[in-house]
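Researcher: Let's do a round of design. I'm pasting the structure tokens now; please hold your answer until I've finished.
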């Protein structure tokens, strides 16, 4: 399976609809929030160092992952992984790993550390496999030093 990662500058809302519906059915509001915050311009991943990537297979968006300046950190040199989601049919095939590795590469020139928050044990194990370490910080469960 050949997956292509593309930076998102215009949100393909119709193409994200399957991800929104599936994630809501699974009890995750992150992708719905992504679309809502894009529409209201609350978060378009457009501050310095920020980015949003979509994973494409054929002509379908099968996953997304974003990078923000961490709104919970005092310094703007801390990045935050946001809104990682891969469609269930494409999980455990390396798509999430590709997305997070792209975020890490994108973050390195602009941030000294990446943070995230997850309450899911499977996700915690996934992030640990990418080098993230558990931390005990407010609004943060895992961290990766970039330099």
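Researcher: That's everything. Go ahead.
Model: Designed sequence:
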């Amino acid at each position: 399976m050949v997956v292509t990662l593309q930076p998102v500058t215009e949100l393909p809302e119709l193409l994200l609809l399957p991800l929104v519906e599936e994630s809501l059915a699974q009890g995750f509001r992150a992708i719905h929030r992504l679309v809502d915050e894009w529409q209201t311009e609350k978060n378009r991943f457009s501050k310095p160092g920020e980015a949003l990537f979509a994973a494409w297979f054929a002509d379908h968006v099968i996953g997304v992952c974003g990078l923000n300046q961490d709104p919970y950190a005092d310094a703007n040199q801390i990045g935050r992984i946001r809104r990682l989601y891969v469609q269930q049919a494409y999980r455990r095939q390396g798509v999430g790993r590709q997305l997070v590795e792209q975020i890490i590469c994108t973050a390195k020139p602009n941030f000294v550390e990446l943070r995230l928050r997850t309450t899911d044990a499977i996700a915690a194990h996934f992030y640990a496999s990418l080098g993230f370490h558990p931390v005990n910080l407010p609004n943060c469960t895992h961290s990766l030093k970039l330099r």
